[in-house]
Amino acid sequence: MNPFSSPTRLRDMIRAIRACKTAAEERAVVRKECAAIRSAISENDQFFRHRNLAKLMFIHMLGYPTHFGQLECLKLIAAVDFPEKRIGYLGLMLLLDERQEVLMLVTNSLKQDLNHSNQYIVGLALCALGNICSAEMAMDLAPEVERLLLSRDQNIKKKAALCSIRIIRKVSDLAENLMSPAALLLKEKHHGVLIAGVQLCTDLCKVSASVLEYLRKTCIERLIRILKDISNSSYSLEYDIAGIVDPFLHIRVLKLMRILGQGDADSSDYMIDILAQVASKTESKKNAGNAVLYECVETIMGIESTSGLRVLAINILGRFLSNHDNNIRYVALNMLMKAVTIESQAVQRHRTTILERVKDSDASIQKRALDLVFLLVNETNVKPLTKELIDYLEVSDQDFKGDLTAKICSIVDKFSQEKLWYTDQMFKVLCLAGNYVKDDVWHALIFAISNAPYLQGHCVRSLYKAFQTYSDQQTLVQVAVWCIGEYGEMLVDNVKVLEMEEPMTVTESDAVDVLETSLKNCSSNITTQSLSLIALLKLSSRFPPTSERIREIIMYHKGSVVLELQQRAIEFNSIIQRHQNIKSSLLERMPVLDEMTYILKKASTSQANVSADKTSKSNSRASLKLPNGVIDAPATPDLDLLDLSSDDNPANASSSNDYLHDLLGIGLTNTESTGIAPSEGTDILMDLLSIGAPTVQNDISVSDAVSSNQGIVPATKPSSTTQVMDLLDGTPTNTKISDYQKPVHPSIIAFQSNTLMITFTFTKQADDPKVTQIQATFTNLSSDAYTDFVFQAAVPKFIQLQLDPASSNFLPANSNEEITQSLTVTNTQHGQKTLAMRMRIAYKVNNQDKLEQGQVNNFPPGL
To answer: Are 510 and 549 in contact (CB under 8 A)?
Structure first.
């Protein structure tokens, strides 16, 4: 009887399911069929068992549960005839996986079928084992598979090799048992067996170092012979693809050669000739040839090849860059990024082509080409490459401008050797893509301008010109406004004009017009408007004729709905109207920013994750040149010179349970003292900038940062006759403040060595016994002068520490002169715990770095 002659044949079920118009109808048909199959299983219907399993496989492919039919697979596998076994093994591979416990029941049937006299049944068993083999099955059946690798039948050899790959991936300890049969497979002529054998050897090399050494000795000559045979063979209809004889075998052999030759010079020498032959003779007109060439290039770059062969490989990649296929161009760029570290000069020859790929229409190719260009930049080609990128920035897509801008800024910052070139290139970027420039980039630009006095006039004039055309670029406007506020008189008086500059005439009113325009521009954000108000306040002191106009502009913003602008307008108006006696000193030009402080800030930002190992952390930071008075606290956000959006200053947390923190650890300065000097009398300037107040406002204005020189205010001894004035109403008080009394605690020698002595002098606050002012005096006891002198201190968690800048970083020899530095400590557990401090002193003697450390435990009681 025909087993498929039943009224409920597989084709009938498929037809019924396809005829369903809704998901509910389909589920009804599936439920009906599953119920009929369950009934047949319970009745142990052997005649229609294979047909029921075929229907279950179709139902499984539709996504319905079929676990109730798993045992039927095992029953069919145990059958005698080939058709039943075929359906059973197919169901086994489809309905089960290696995680199913029922799979253990099939091991014995697989073992019997692997020893079957029928090659087709053996093939079924190998195919199933290669798909669902578990570690336990691999251990049990590995000897049978190893024996089948030596079979005379080509089809069985191929399937046994593929099954062996699965086995060694599950149990790598079996690799050494299979290495000899795998090496013998490379002597076969049949390409299917060769591909399977090469892949088996590749996987064996990955799981065992001893197998790798064995195959290096036995297989390299065979692989070279295979490549020669297929490269020199004539047209073969069976294996030819687009004029290339079996490119799949080509690629597999090249991959295995790369693994065998990697890190082994002797093996690589054997391969050089055949790789050169493949690279030279393979046609690149079709994808098959390009695939072989790409794999050949990867092999050349992966082994210990000669320089000439690597240049040949890079030239092939250069041809790929001109290919019309996007995929080929992309993989070529990927490979060139790896090759640039090995053969930089060879890659540089294709620089023009790579730059063209930056302008590619494909976004992924653009980004990859841009990354490659960044790797190609060096001191010799930075200027032409930067010019090309900036020229393209003007016409690039909006989606690509952000990445392109970031790379250009990074290149200019990393490779600039002249500040004039650096500033000019940054101005071009700000003009073309200022809205894409990140804050840290334009902060760095302002830092560079402030440290180049000879360029300040040129910069402010260039920014003034750029503002006339590109006022829609927010970052450009912010930099221009800052420079006009600081160097406005240079703009008006044409100070420090460079030879290449064209003469220009700018009046005081024109400079004010720029600031007024930036304030009224509807696209200006709060940062820009705040900077404009500060710049106007500074110009009111430098351009007296425009003072009244500036006051009117500031008064307009007293009613601003933005609290930040409203507060600034009120305070600045009070300065202009009522505090003429302090305005000139208050609004002086910002002092030159300390370069080492800025470098430290960038370094601490990049080192957000501090190592728990204190020793390694101390060693890694020892090479940093920290300026006096700066404490490295990576976990606490640094006060950004121009950051108006720093709305939160989180309290510093300590991860250390030690009594004293590591000298360079986290938590040395809390939020109330970060970037803010200790209160030393209610000075008018301090009151104006909210410095030294008991609480700290979250929004730190530009004027705060500018006037305090990056948030660190030198200690000044206040006059006892200083009058406290309210900035908003100007009403003076008759109270005279004197925060610090005369020293009541004896001085101590905090540290002394053969070369250095540190003395501490103490002063207590009258109204707050928790706060102590320490005057540290450094004396050089040696006969050599100390340069780059840096003092750092760390305290326990219950103590807050603020260091002011030192009087100098140069300490003369033989105690001729001394360095002084002020420290303010707040003992939050005053009366319960005494002060303790750990110090580190770094300096140079004859350009040799020196480091001394110590701990102070002899503080006088009562501190």
So the answer is: no
- Kindly give, in sequence order, each residue whose CB lies less than 8 Å from that of residue 694, ignoring residues fewer than 6 positions away: none
Q: Nearest CA to 149 among 107, 111, 178?
A: 178
Residue 159 has pLDDT above 80, yes or no: yes
Pairing of strands 244-245, 240-241: antiparallel
Alpha helices in 623-738, H assignment, sequence order: 684-688, 702-707
Phi, psi of 759 (to 5 degrees): -115, 135
Find how far residue 387's CA is from the centre of its chain. 26
Q: Sign of dihedral through CA atoms 456, 459, 463, 465?
A: positive
Give the whole-angstrom CA distance, residue 839 versus residue 854: 5
Phi, psi of 773 (to 5 degrees): -95, 125
Question: Which amino acid belongs to residue 15?
Answer: R
Q: What is the pLDDT of residue 286?
A: 86
DSSP state of 68: G
Q: Out of 247-261, 282-296, 405-419, 733-747, which region has the weakest mean confidence (pLDDT)? A: 733-747
Q: Using DSSP, state whether 603 is helix, strand or coil.
A: helix
Kind and range of the H or E element at 750?
A: strand 748-752
Q: Residue 777 phi/psi, 5° resolution? A: -120, 125
Q: What is the pTM of this model?
A: 0.63
- Hey, what amino acid is at 701? S
Which three-class secondary structure state does DSSP give residue 777?
A: strand
Task: Kindly state the tokens that stand for 286.
Answer: 């079709």
Angle, in degrees to the nearest 10, between helices 191-207 and 247-261: 30
Here the tokens at position 264 are 């082994």
User: What is the Cα–Cα distance from 273 to 261, expressed in whole angstroms?
Assistant: 13
Q: Is 609 exposed, middle or buried (0-12, 13-18, 19+ CB in 10 A)?
A: exposed
C-alpha–C-alpha distance, residues 419 and 432, integer Å: 20
Query: Can you tell me the distance from the alpha carbon of 78 to that of 107, in angstroms, rounded to the nearest whole number?
Result: 11
| pLDDT class of 617 with cuts at 50, 70, 90 | very low
Phi, psi torsion values for 809, nearest 5 degrees: -115, 15
Q: Which percentage of the chain shows pLDDT scores above 70?
A: 82
H helices present in 340-397, as ranges:
344-348, 351-358, 363-376, 382-393
Q: Phi, psi (5° rounding) for residue 465?
A: -65, -45
Grouping H, G, I as helix, E, B as strand and the rest as coil, residue 508 is helix
Asked if residue 729 has pLDDT above 50, the reply is: no
Q: In the 3-class helix/strand/coil scheme, how is 707-739 assigned residue by residue? A: HCCCCCCCCCCCCCCCEEECCCCCCEEEEECCC
Asked whether the beta carbons of 215 and 201 are under 8 A apart, the reply is: yes
